[in-house]
């Protein structure tokens, strides 16, 4: 199972949700926050062992 947040949750909410999702053993969580908060991703990585996928919206055609 993979979960895509589509960057729709706040940083604070992502920090609360990611540890709780660990129980479900997802493959990854995609785009937990908007790309503009990319510099804050290390905080999310530290709060949970759930892998985070991102970068899809950093580029356009």
What key attributes describe this structure?
61 residues, alpha/beta, three-stranded parallel β-sheet, 2 helices, globular
What does this structure look like?
- The protein is of the alpha/beta class.
- The protein has one domain (2-58).
- It contains 2 helices and 3 strands; from the N terminus they run βαβαβ.
- Strand 2, helix 2 and strand 3 (52-53) form a beta-alpha-beta unit.
- The protein is globular.
Into which percentage range does the β-strand content fall?
A: 5-15%
**Helix and strand succession?**
EHEHE
SS elements, strand count: 3
Quickly give the structural class: alpha/beta
What does the average pLDDT come to?
89
Q: How far apart are the termini?
A: 28 Å
Radius of gyration: 11 Å
Query: How many individual helices?
Result: 2
Query: Please, how many domains?
Result: 1
Q: How is the biggest beta sheet arranged?
A: 3 strands, parallel
Write the layout of secondary structure elements.
Blueprint: E1 2-4, H1 11-21, E2 28-30, H2 41-47, E3 52-53
Parallel strand pairs: 1-2, 2-3
């Amino acid at each position: 199972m993979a979960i895509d947040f589509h960057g729709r949750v706040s940083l604070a909410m992502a920090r609360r949700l990611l540890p709780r999702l660990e129980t479900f053993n997802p493959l990854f969580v995609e785009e937990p926050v908007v790309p503009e908060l990319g510099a804050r991703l290390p905080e999310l990585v530290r709060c949970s062992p759930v892998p985070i996928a991102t970068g899809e919206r950093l580029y356009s055609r």
